[in-house]
């Protein structure tokens, strides 16, 4: 393990995971250079509010730039002695990639290649990047293990994440850049993403609107709490490998209706439910085998779903100023 006091570039720093990671690195006395293009894929004021929480930290510098802008990246890498990269900037979302494919090409393919090129020109001690459970597509063998074949992602989003892993392997091989990809599994928690199930359900239930439940509720997800994800990501940043891939999941499968049940119980409101078929690109089940992550990164997810949901709801009520329900 290397020591702390690094200068870490966190891309996607105004995003859900990037913000939490940056806050945690700053707490550990790292310098953080943050990049985010603050795009309007979801409510920009939420991205700005996250940034405001860390903006005044003396060890934090923010650039509103896109990782798809090579000249901007060159300026930033020339100006700072960046010794680690954590690339979380991406166009996320499975369903959105059906309608907006070129956004994924810009941020996830071109942007990622730009960062690999930066690491080639400005050597770093480690480069960690977000992959996704989406690379497993409709794999039938469960739980998903990193040794499994991932040649058949079923969304362009999943395909771009798999492409990142392959590009990373090539750059580690050719230019001896330490690169690690983290396959995140359905991350949730305070300051979470408004396009994801827990946020959507909470908002609709509180607003008295019906919630859309896909595949008629027959969905299973490995929900992973944000603090566990940040711990796993920091372990990866502290453990350079020439090339590795890890699953970061809770390794517990939760039925979608169980999630709905807990949210209803915690809010004390019965949801109006709108049952719908499976959406194109969506997979019915995700489940992480984290044996390798435990062994090599000491990863040990600790947060139960109910505890995590409570923390999310406490934040949601506070942020959106919802007094009593
Ligand atoms: N949240 C999850 O459950 C989950 C699961 C699997 C993988 N991931 C991956 O983890 C990473 C972080 O996800 P998140 O949930 O925090 O998403 P997020 O959308 O909240 O954060 C991504 C941030 O990147 C920024 N961004 C997008 N394109 C950019 C570009 N070209 N240049 C600069 N900034 C750009 C966005 O403005 C956003 O603030 C992403 O790569 C995502 O694909 C997330």
How would you sum up this structure, described in words?
The longest helix has 21 residues, at 101-121. Helices cover 42% and strands 16% of the residues. It has a single domain, classed as Rossmann fold, CATH 3.40.50.720. The protein has 325 residues and is an alpha/beta fold. The chain contains 11 helices and 13 strands. Strand 2, helix 2 (44-55) and strand 3 (60-63) form a beta-alpha-beta unit. It is globular. 45% of the residues are buried. It has a 7-stranded parallel β-sheet with strand order 3-2-1-4-5-6-11, sandwiched between helices. Strands 7-10 form a two-stranded parallel sheet. It has helices at residues 16-27, 44-55, 70-79, 96-99, 101-121, 156-175, 197-207, 226-237, 256-267, 291-297, 305-319, and strands at 7-11, 31-35, 60-63, 84-87, 126-132, 179-184, 187-188, 211-213, 220-221, 224-225, 243-248, 254-255, 273-275. The mean pLDDT is 97. The protein binds nicotinamide-adenine-dinucleotide (NAD). The site of nicotinamide-adenine-dinucleotide (NAD) has 29 residues, from helix 1, helix 5 and strand 5.
Contiguous uncertain segments of 5+ residues: none
Task: Give the N-to-C terminal Cα separation.
Answer: 47 Å
Bound molecules: nicotinamide-adenine-dinucleotide
Structural classification: alpha/beta
Mean pLDDT: 97
- Record the strand order, biggest sheet: 3-2-1-4-5-6-11
Which percent range describes the beta-strand content?
A: 15-25%
**Which series of helices and strands comes N to C?**
EHEHEHEHHEHEEHEEEHEEHEHH
* Anisotropy-based shape: globular
**Could you give a short account of the major beta sheet?**
7 strands, parallel
């Amino acid at each position: 393990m290397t020591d702390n006091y690094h200068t870490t570039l966190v891309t996607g720093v105004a995003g859900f995971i990037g913000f939490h990671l940056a806050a945690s690195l700053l707490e550990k006395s790292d310098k953080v250079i943050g990049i985010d293009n603050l795009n309007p894929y979801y409510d920009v004021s939420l991205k700005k509010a996250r940034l405001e929480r860390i903006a005044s930290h003396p060890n934090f510098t923010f650039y509103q730039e896109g990782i798809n802008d090579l000249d901007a990246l060159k300026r930033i890498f020339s100006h700072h002695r960046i010794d680690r990269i954590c690339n979380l900037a991406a166009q996320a979302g499975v369903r959105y990639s059906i309608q907006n494919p070129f956004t994924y090409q810009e941020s996830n393919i071109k942007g990622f290649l730009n960062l690999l090129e930066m690491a080639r020109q400005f050597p770093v001690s480690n480069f960690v990047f977000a992959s996704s459970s989406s690379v497993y597509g409709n794999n039938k063998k469960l739980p998903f293990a990193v040794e499994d074949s991932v040649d058949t992602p079923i969304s362009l989003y999943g395909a771009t994440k798999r492409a990142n892993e392959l590009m990373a392997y090539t750059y580690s091989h050719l230019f001896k850049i330490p690169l690690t990809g983290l396959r995140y599994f359905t991350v949730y928690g305070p300051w979470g993403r408004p396009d994801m199930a827990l946020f959507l359900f909470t908002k609709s239930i509180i607003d008295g609107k019906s919630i859309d439940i896909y595949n008629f509720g027959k969905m299973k997800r490995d929900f992973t709490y944000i603090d566990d994800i940040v711990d796993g990501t920091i372990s990866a940043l502290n453990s350079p490998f020439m090339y590795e891939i890890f699953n970061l999941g809770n390794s517990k499968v939760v039925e979608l209706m169980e999630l709905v049940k807990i949210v209803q119980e915690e809010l004390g409101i019965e949801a109006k439910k709108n049952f719908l078929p499976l959406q194109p690109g969506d997979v019915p089940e995700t489940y992480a085998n984290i044996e390798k992550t435990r062994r090599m990164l000491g990863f040990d997810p600790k947060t139960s779903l109910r505890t995590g949901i409570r923390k999310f709801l406490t934040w949601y009520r506070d942020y959106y100023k919802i007094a009593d329900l």
